[in-house]
């Protein structure tokens, strides 16, 4: 179990739950970081007393400096601030910012040999090969927070060599079974309302389009060192099984729990140990049926596109993920329709030439270009 942690994206859904877990487990919080929600960040600073906090937006950072002038806390800003929050004091980092802005800070935390409690899946999608190689080289442990990957991680502990196939489960989101014509009028309010999970806006939209499952597909390839053909997506609307692994002899192991992100967050912090938790227990008498379906890739083109980009490799996943961030932001702002998300991402993937084994700078350049193309009028 870790004794100290910094939380990147502390004002978000995963960030807030991480701080609650740290408090309950008696883990000291060394640094916090957010983008611009300084009202909540100030509350968190007063409650957890970190020595350092970072605000991406410089104006908000300046206002926060004034607001907490009575405390011994240094306030950084911009990407530099976020990177310092990742690499400074503390045994572990929860990467819970949304989007590929988490890439550099995650690399810094790896260079500092910290445990990465990884929620920020976009980082692995855009640069998984580089991130995993760096972690191996530095001996930095990456413990997944994403519920599916936490499940796979737990099922594989001590038996990685026996793995034959990963069964990545997903609820199918709020529009499961809807045709393209039916999803055309979906509003941001409808898209962010997920039946089983309460999450940030971007990942909620990704869950609706199933781009989230596509990002998780690529995340799993990197985390567990498997090929696209070794992962099967299974629709499981109840979200009780959080994912499964099939072993060489045909045995299938699954991890089950009530859908509450607090649990994988706690596990990433206590690993390799476990501790008691306050979360609701599974009640098999109340649970009802567990059902499973094959995804209909024609109805969830974002998942099909992500699986295709996983096979293409190189820059394709980074381009796809950055284009998706830009398109989802436009959708949430009411500027484009729901189906335009896929159209913009697919068009951007086709427009940016791919290349094998990209370096970090190539990835960052492609990320920027993809945002420009997908976010344009
Ligand atoms: P939220 O939108 O709720 O929170 C995002 C957090 O990141 C906020 O604290 C936000 O700050 C901060 N942030 C965003 N951009 C920057 C930036 N440029 N610099 C510093 N901080 C920034 O997202 P979630 O908590 O839902 O998701 C976070 C990550 O975890 C995502 O990668 C997501 O895919 C992953 N994840 C989330 C799950 C969930 O249940 N929510 C489940 C599995 C994975 P501010 O508040 O100031 O804007
Ligand atoms: Mg997940």
The secondary-structure element order is EHEHEHEHEHEHEHEHHHHEEEHHHHH
Beta-strand proportion: 5-15%
Summed over residues and divided by their number, the pLDDT gives a mean of 97
Please mark out the parts with pLDDT under 50 across 5 or more consecutive residues, or reply none. Answer: none
Distance between the termini: 48 Å
Helix content: 40-55%
Strand segment tally? 11
Distinct small-molecule ligands in the complex: NADPH dihydro-nicotinamide-adenine-dinucleotide phosphate, magnesium ion
Specify the number of helices: 16
Assign an overall shape.
Answer: globular
Q: How big is the Rg? A: 20 Å
Taking the sheet with the most strands, its summary is: 7 strands, parallel
Strand order, main sheet: write it out: 4-3-2-1-5-6-7
Q: Tally the structural domains.
A: 2
Which structural class matches the secondary elements? alpha/beta
What does this structure look like?
By secondary structure, the chain is an alpha/beta fold. The protein has 2 domains: about 5-145, Rossmann fold (3-Layer(aba) Sandwich); about 150-260 and about 280-310, no CATH class. Helices cover about 50% and strands about 15% of the residues. α5 (about 105-110) links the parallel β5 (about 90-95) and β6. α1 packs across α12, α10 crosses α14 (about 315-330) and α13 (about 300-310) packs parallel to α15 (about 340-350). The protein is globular, with a radius of gyration of 20 Å. The mean pLDDT is about 95. The protein binds NADPH dihydro-nicotinamide-adenine-dinucleotide phosphate and magnesium ion. NADPH dihydro-nicotinamide-adenine-dinucleotide phosphate binds near residues 14, 34 and 122.
């Amino acid at each position: 179990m870790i004794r100290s942690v910094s939380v990147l994206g502390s004002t978000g859904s995963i960030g807030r739950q991480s701080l609650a877990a740290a408090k309950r487990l008696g883990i000291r919080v060394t640094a916090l970081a957010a983008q611009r929600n300084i009202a909540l960040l100030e509350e968190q600073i007063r409650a957890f007393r970190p020595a350092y906090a970072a605000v991406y937006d410089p104006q908000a950072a300046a206002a926060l400096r004034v607001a907490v002038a009575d405390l011994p806390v240094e306030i950084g800003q911009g990407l530099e601030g976020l990177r310092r929050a990742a690499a400074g004091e503390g045994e572990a980092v929860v990467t819970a910012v949304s989007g590929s802005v988490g890439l550099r800070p995650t690399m810094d935390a790896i260079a500092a040999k910290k445990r990465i409690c990884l929620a920020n899946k976009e980082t692995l999608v855009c640069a998984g090969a580089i991130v995993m190689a760096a972690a191996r080289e530095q001996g930095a442990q990456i413990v997944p927070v994403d519920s599916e990957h936490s499940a796979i991680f737990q099922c594989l502990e001590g038996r990685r060599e026996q793995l034959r196939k990963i069964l990545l489960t997903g609820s199918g989101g709020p529009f499961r079974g809807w045709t393209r014509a039916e999803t055309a009028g979906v509003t941001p309010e409808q898209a962010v309302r997920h039946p089983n999970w309460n999450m940030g806006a971007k990942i909620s939209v990704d869950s609706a389009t199933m781009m989230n499952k596509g990002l998780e597909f690529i995340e799993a390839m990197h985390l567990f060192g498997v090929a696209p053909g070794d992962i099967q997506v299974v629709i499981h609307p109840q979200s009780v099984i959080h994912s499964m692994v099939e072993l060489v002899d045909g045995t299938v192991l699954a991890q089950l729990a009530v859908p509450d992100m607090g649990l994988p967050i706690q596990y990433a912090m206590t690993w390799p140990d476990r501790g008691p938790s306050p979360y609701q227990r599974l009640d098999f008498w109340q649970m009802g049926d567990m059902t499973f379906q094959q995804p209909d890739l024609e109805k969830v083109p974002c998942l099909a596109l992500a699986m295709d980009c996983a096979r293409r490799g190189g820059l394709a996943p980074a381009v796809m993920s950055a284009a998706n961030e830009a398109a989802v932001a436009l959708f949430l702002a009411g500027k484009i329709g729901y189906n335009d998300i896929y159209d913009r991402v697919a068009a951007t993937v086709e427009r940016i030439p791919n290349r094998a084994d990209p370096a970090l700078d190539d990835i960052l350049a492609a990320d920027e270009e993809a945002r420009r193309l997908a976010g344009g009028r």
